[in-house]
Amino acid sequence: MYIETYGCQMNLADSELVMGILKKQGYEITNEIDKANVILLNTCSVREHAEEKIFHRLDHLKRFKRNNPTTVIGILGCMAERLRKNLIEEKKIVDVVVGPDEYRRLPEYLELAFGGEKGIGVKLSRTETYEDIEPYREDGISAWIAVMRGCDKFCSFCVVPFTRGRERSRSLLSVVKEVEKLSERGFKEVTLLGQNVNSYNDNGKDFADLLAAVASVDRNIRVRFTTSHPQDMSDKLLHTIAEHNNICNYIHLPVQSGSNRILELMNRSYTIEHYLNLIEKARKIIPGVSFSTDIIAGFPTETEEDHQMTLDVMKEIRYDGAYMFKYSPREGTKAYNMKDDVPEEIKIRRLNEIIELQQKISFEINQQLIGSEEVILVEGTSKKSDQFLSGRTDTNKVVIIPKKDNINIGDYVKVRIIRATSATLFGEVN
Ligand code: SAH
Ligand code: SF4
Ligand code: F3S
Predict the structure, then answer these.
(1) What superfamily would CATH give domain 373-429?
(2) What CATH topology corresponds to 137-248?
(3) In angstroms, what is the span from residue 8 Cα to ligand 2's centroid?
(4) What is the model's pTM?
């Protein structure tokens, strides 16, 4: 079997789960699509563009299927959940459609498909967490661990509560056990995943308890987490991050907009004042903490004034990084019923202003790091040159350093920053 993964980190974790399930059934995993009898696409629905990408991929696979008619093609993930039987009806090459809560049954559906029968499994579950299933992971440095599934927030623009169902948490013990195994295998970093990790709840044990327990497994393992919803972030969590050296001083805290009127229409359930307070508090409790965010440009009814408020908030907070998007109406969401009334060219202009501002801020922040010393975890060879290694700081900044014989992937190395762009730091090792 061969699998391609699109969308968020949750999908990356789910693909490892799916590989774990299929491997147990005797399937062999391959990176070469030509060798596979099963091709799976784990898909994303978050914006229209994400879905278009999959449709293009399917058009491309049409030729492949013509030459290899016995190959089974399956769609997993959020598009499977959202489009269901339409996928099979509209895209004749699709044999199997399985949503995020039905992966246990994937082997059954594949068996049917080998017999020529199409299959759809898209029931959502209130309890499925797959915590008893061991994901398939190649040896490496970093691992994703989904500690929750689903989302109950229902932000008005967002399709995720519909594609992933109600929120549910894995047990703390099962997460700790997984981290213990990763530690034995030599992993150096884990990222705990959930759509809103701050509402993690295992019989009263909250996300701060989980983080503390995970961080205590192996002090040589860095612990990261995403995503935090600004409404649910507790003081206890901030103190926990500060108390544990190996919990990274980095928080992804999506703001979405700087305008209270728009935040309310988005059903984000916090005000900008609350958000700014939270950032201020976090900076006090966790000195040197870095922040990234998500921003949507051109939500229905957004005026120039609202847009300016977003730019102002960015200037005030000075995020280390941001993921910035143009609003994309999603069928079934509450915002879909509002008129998508910001013209495309204005959305594009506002998005570009947001991107330019963030690049300027990131560049300035990174320039100030020149001359400073940072500890990085070496994660691999630089994408651009095999003469260089790539690692990240505690605050999630990518640092490129020259290769040296005594530096190995997985090492923590002290580096001095000598150069910086808006996206990358360059360091030397003494
Ligand atoms: N649970 C996470 C991730 C949600 S999806 C969170 O709450 O942050 C990641 C980001 O995609 C969101 O934060 C939002 O900025 C963006 N997004 C979601 N739906 C969107 C839409 N319909 N149009 C544009 N951007 C969207
Ligand atoms: Fe979507 Fe909001 Fe849930 Fe994030 S918190 S997944 S944006 S509904
Ligand atoms: Fe996309 Fe689903 Fe993740 S919509 S962003 S793959 S939760």
Answers:
(1) Nucleic acid-binding proteins (2.40.50.140)
(2) Transcription Regulator spoIIAA (3.30.750)
(3) 12
(4) 0.96
